[in-house]
Design goal:
Helix content is 38%, strand content 6%. With 89 residues, it is mainly alpha-helical. The protein has two domains: 38 residues, no CATH class; 43 residues, no CATH class. It has a two-stranded antiparallel ribbon with strand order 1-2. Strand 1 and strand 2 form a beta hairpin. It is extended and about 45 Å long. The N and C termini lie far apart (40 Å).
């Protein structure tokens, strides 16, 4: 197991000069976390898009597996709402 000596979150984009977090010792890029819209929200805002992406990337049948693993039953109204909203941006 690799020992991690230091972790921290930094807001940034992948634009030149702002390419995310660099490793503490060797200067390698280690992660990109976009916290621009961080806040409290309805979990279905993420789940609707996650289930949509699972279907697009892996085919039909994976949505229910994802929701089961998350521990929730499908909410068709919220899924439809947030998928429509997601198409706006």
């Amino acid at each position: 197991m690799t020992h991690v000596r230091a972790l921290r979150a930094e807001q940034g984009s992948r634009e030149p000069g702002n390419a995310g977090r660099r490793g503490p010792d060797d200067g390698r890029w280690s992660a990109h976390v976009d916290l621009g819209d961080l806040g409290l929200a309805d979990r279905w805002a993420d789940l609707a898009i996650a289930t949509w992406n699972v279907t697009l990337n892996y085919g039909p049948g994976w949505e229910s597996l994802l929701l089961d693993a998350y521990g929730v039953a499908a909410d068709a109204a919220r899924i439809e709402y947030y998928r429509l909203l997601g198409r706006c941006y």
